[in-house]
Amino acid sequence: MKGFVKVVVATVVLVMIAAACSSNSSGGGTGTTAAPGAQGGTFSYVNCEPSSLIPHNNYEACGGQVFEAIFTRLVTFDFTTGDPVPAQAESITPSEDGLTYTIVIKDGWTFHNGEPVTATSYVDAWNYAAYGPNGYILNFFFDRIEGYDAMNTDKPTTTELSGLAVVNDTTFTVTLTAPFSQFEITLGYDAFDPLPAAFYDDPDAYNEKPIGDGPYMMDGAWKHDETINLTRYPDYAGTPGNADNIELPIYTGDAAWADFQAGNVDITLVGSSHIEEARTSYPDTLNAQAGSTYLYLGLPTYDPRFASKELRQALSMAIDRQAVISAILVAEQPANDVMPPSIAGYRGACQYCTLDVAGAQQKLADAGGWTGELTLNIYADDQILEQAMEAVANMWNENLGIDVKLNATSYNQYSAAIQGHKMTGPWWDGWGMDYPSPQDYLTPLYGSNGGYNVSGYDSPEFDALMTQGDEAPTLDESIPIYQQGADMILEDMPVIPWGYIGFNTVTQPTVTNVLKEGPLDNVALELVQVVQPAA
Amino acid sequence: MSRRYLIRRLLLVVPVLLGTILLVFGMVFLAPGDPIARLAGNKPLSPSTIAVMTQRYHLDQPFVIQFWEYLKALSHGDFGATFTGRDVSEIIKERFPVTLKLAIGAFGIELVLGLALSIVSAVKRRTWIDSSILVGTLFMITIPTLVVGFVLQYVFGIKLGWLPVAGVQAGWQSYVLPSLTIGLGLAASIGRLGRSDILDNMTGEHIRAANARGLPRRRVIGHHVLKNSLVPIVTILGLDLAYLMGGAVITETIFNLPGLGQSLIVGVRTSNGPLVVGLVMLFAIIFVFTTLIVDLLCARIDPRISYE
Lengths: 535, 308
Prior knowledge:
The structure holds 2 protein chains of 2 kinds.
Chain A: H1 2-24, E1 42-44, H2 61-70, E2 75-77, E3 84-86, E4 89-94, E5 100-105, H3 119-130, E6 164-168, E7 171-175, H4 183-186, H5 198-201, H6 203-208, E8 216-218, E9 227-232, E10 245-249, H7 255-261, E11 267-269, H8 272-281, E12 287-298, H9 309-317, H10 321-327, E13 332-334, H11 357-366, E14 373-379, H12 383-400, E15 403-409, H13 411-419, E16 427-431, H14 443-446, H15 460-471, H16 475-492, E17 495-507, E18 511-512, E19 529-530
Parallel strand pairs in A: 1-10, 14-15
Antiparallel strand pairs in A: 2-3, 4-5, 5-7, 6-7, 8-9, 9-10, 11-17, 12-16, 12-17, 13-17, 18-19
Chain B: H1 3-30, H2 47-56, H3 63-75, H4 88-123, H5 128-142, H6 145-159, H7 176-202, H8 205-212, H9 217-245, H10 249-254, H11 260-269, H12 273-301
């Protein structure tokens, strides 16, 4: 976790510098000063059009950022350690056998329409999302809870998960089909948000003006493709948000950056195309952190030519990630583990992830060399990616003497070939987590039944480790076990770790305290402070 | 204008629309990959969710059935729903006004500025005024919309801060720069086209006769020259208007205007079949009817057309 602590310290320093800069400018009498802990004011943050504002039916970041402000989840995460901390929950207690969790929620909380938040608010919402015929996107999140299968047959006979039971107004229990040490962490995802009774009357109407239990509530309905405006919820039972109002204008494409430059929006994320400009124009407020998306080059281990782990290690050691990233993929950070630094369990333990030409050549010789052409696959119409992968191809050619051909196909064909195990060579790929646990970077990708095991990695030993991690009695005890699994992946290299997509923000001098929500890729909107005009 | 001409043109609309729908629907249908699976990126959705969605959008049916279901719904004015569950007709209703405002702004600039330029440069032909208009318009035509948009956005939006940079939150002001982005180039083309049309007509026998009869210059230009020069100009203006109503993809993207063009880009990028089919069909309808109106207008200006 050392790396992450450093980043947070850097953030604090940056924020202080920003504050200092704004106080310096107050010479003319019209200037501003940053009042620490200041409340009030309005700020805006660049967002995109959500696919839905029902948390259980949304699986993308545009909605996620809205939910961050209008919902308080059962669990949140410590910004420095990444550990789960109860938020709307009072306590979450697993049973001795790890199968049943007793969840006690805080008393006296209300939804934005005044309805009390009770155990039923959770249980009914989860049942609704888990019920197959409702067709909700996040349905699959409930498959660990007992009774899920009965609700997802062709003609389900029940609309309630047998594993959920309301004990009293503030207590309910969740019974899992198998022990899962990471369950508490998953509760920090929006699939497990509560819903008010008003939702069931008219889900479509709810989608236009969602009612949550968080520090901010909708200020008017969702203006599609224009903006989502929020205002502080006056009866919020937790720590109130700092600003009075938040505007989340919706952008598609590059216009957001132009609008930020014109000073019309207070906070924006910066992608590859503008990060250099941000470094020169906004050095004081640029806050570059590793996001949760882990990028890698997939390897078809199902293809006999890629069966040798020495060959895979050789390919990994023959590329200079930092050089390619500094020159072309500037918004990223090179990977040195199979999970990003914000995840508890990250160590930076990859020994084959740095350039070592002699080592790579040795490994290639151990593997018996390579004959013929190697195809490096990318999806079409991404110039930056194409340049970066050309660089990788050149490195393999120069350092290992392998002839590499770049093969670009349409995205649909590309993803079909990946998932159908039809790739003929390495390919560009990535994985974003659902919840900040090392398990979510391992089981789905490399478990023999993993939902996105595209490399075809199959190791009973690895599977056993994952089960052992899932069965660990506590989170702390689970991490070293998952790390053993990560070590196996770093040694066997079914994929070549590449990098982490950056979560890079820039801000106007009008706001301070702009923080990433710990391990999650959101801005903690409730903490942002608007710099008040000097009295 | 003959009634038969009108009926013939109206009847032509039906096969054109059917053909367009079939073509677009076929293209979307044949596109590889599973649009439902992509709703969650590379995450596997649960089988029950996939089953429900597949059924909802008839994706398990053969092409003919899907096409028939679509036409059936369409006959009730139902454009279907996107894969994220929004009614396509609702999206059109919400976005069409934005595109319409932009089209009106750009068209206004094209019409007023374009005609003014053509008349001035024709009347003042071979003077320095004519030359500067010719050079200026050539310059405007050769610069791509993308560049014009970014330059206007940078100068007037970011540097000077006079006008909004993005979005439609600022009311009519939001449309000034986007309208100029499209309108200036179109006006330049009309200016050049109109100039040569007017000059052609000025050498006609009837103009010489009118001049010889001592008619005032203003009346000669306004009545005899302009009216005869109008047919090609109105045809081009009409095509431009039809094209503008179909959403200006580049301009809407540069200025983040939530219009139809922007929606089409998003739809194509996310393989959102129902959205793409609905929008393209709408464009086809707009195009067919706008050109119909233009043709009728031309027939009115020049009655010879309807007898061809």
